[in-house]
Amino acid sequence: MNARVHQPAHSSQHANSYYAASSNRQLAYPTLEGELRADVCIVGGGFSGLNTAIELAQKGLSVVLLEAHKIGWGASGRNGGQLIRGVGHGVEQFESVIGSQGVRELKLMGLEAVEIVRQRIEHFNIDCDLTWGYCDLANKPSHLDDFAEDMAELKQLGYRHEMRLLQPQQMHEVVGSNRYVGGMIDMGSGHLHPLNLALGEAAAAQSLGVQLFEDSAVMRIDYGNEVKVHTARGVVRAANLVLGCNAYLNGLNNNLGGKVLPAGSYVIATEPLSEAEARAIIPQNMALCDQRVALDYYRLSADRRLLFGGACHYSGRDPVDIAGYMRPKMLAVFPHLKDVRIDYQWGGMIGIGANRLPQIGRLKDQPNVFYAQAYSGHGVNATHLAGKLLGEAIAGQASNGFDLFAKVPHMTFPGGKHLRSPLLALGMLWHRLKELV
């Protein structure tokens, strides 16, 4: 059984982002040439692939990782850098499939996921500006009620980090804006430099014996008891295959591709702010995120730039002027930044699933082919959890977490390749209209 993919023309360099400009490692890996054998071949050099590789190498398996562009080229190196507890949205919806205990375990894994990132950074001494402190922002009073329920549940789950509800008059403790009516502080979530994390994890994987290859797009996969993965110049033969491409699967597997929808998300970075300016807008240097469907998320960089992200495009086409598109959103929150220069603007694709739960499992007709995708905006932590679960499953270790994720069915988006995005855009418009009620 073969699968072919047409690779679109993309620059193989990192996006022209603040992250690329401030990366602290200049890593270069060769292009695959010739034939290699390994226990596991991983396709995708983002957080999913890198962390699966680390987990497998630590268990003594030989691993080859193929990246079509550069390590961290996709969402892993472009995202907002927010490290927030939780996986999925409304996991209670899966109780009929995995039971109430299964739902509880998903919630606990959503907390564990952040700890995996913490431990990875500490173990390999990765310099990625990790900073603790996050605040959910309430756009309307009912959100504050939701936060109170969330906080009660987190305490019941044994969450060990400081949490605190903020009333309207307390909001200036965390954000210099009049836009919000309350918030919830969580000191167990935070923010970091995602590209530096990915590059640090690549170096860690290599130190463990993982063979990494860049500019090595997969052109064809021959499935079977031994998988053969073809690039333009080479072949990898492996007992197991991991597809960790997420929104950049690009037709490599039609079954998986139909279950994840690429959606554009965008970030701008201002010029460096003075210490007083930075303290005025985000006094405690937290990551912040509101509750709207087309949410705003923002934080300060290590050199005191405001990194402001949001929007969600399903057209597959980026705005011609990302800064022109995002700046009004930033000024709606911080109108006093009207004279601040925008130094960087960039975008990328995140992968969204219909039920907003990460898709982690193996192909039913090819049990030696594993996958992880569709993180729906929670990728920094959920990818690291996926790597742990995939590593356990491939190594033959009992993994209740992997089995729970694998049990949850994921629908294929209707409409085929060309109608899928417009149909979802209509659905999201409906949710935005409901926010006005």
TrEMBL record:
It is an enzyme of class 1 (oxidoreductase). Gene3D superfamilies: D-Amino Acid Oxidase, subunit A, domain 2, FAD/NAD(P)-binding domain. Its EC number is 1.-.-.-. Keywords: Oxidoreductase. GO terms for molecular function: oxidoreductase activity. InterPro entries: FAD-dep_OxRdtase, FAD/NAD-bd_sf. SUPFAM superfamilies: FAD/NAD(P)-binding domain. Residues 39-392 form the FAD dependent oxidoreductase domain. This is FAD-binding oxidoreductase.
